[in-house]
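INFO batch 0412 | record 1 of 1 | parsing
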Amino acid sequence: MSPTHTTYSQPMNHPPQTGHPSTRDLTPSIASNVLANATCRTAIQYFSATETDVTDLDELVDYVHEEVATITAPEQARIELVHIHLPKLADYDVIEYDERSEVIRYRSYPQLEAILDLTTQSEGGDEDDG
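INFO prediction complete | emitting tokens
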């Protein structure tokens, strides 16, 4: 009897795991999925606003709590980030999240940032309309 070999494939909406940042590709479908949620958008905006690529969970929790209207308490921000949004962003290779140290490392996607900038401008982001 030969050993059983199980192959797991990633869902179609996940980015290819190439291992090299310069070869990572962000499809419109992936960008749309990542940016569909206000908390995910805000988490990505944090890294642009602070001009850093590494932060700890507490800093991101505070930022999300202040910026997302539907987040009414820091603990709500923490729960949503830890259980929903950080794992999602890590699955898409947008961040690396070390649960033990609670350190988040942003992995820049210029395409994602450009789409986010356009989205923010069209929503009336920080633009002064007159």
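INFO post-check: Helices lie at 28-35, 38-50, 57-67, 74-91, 110-122.
INFO record closed
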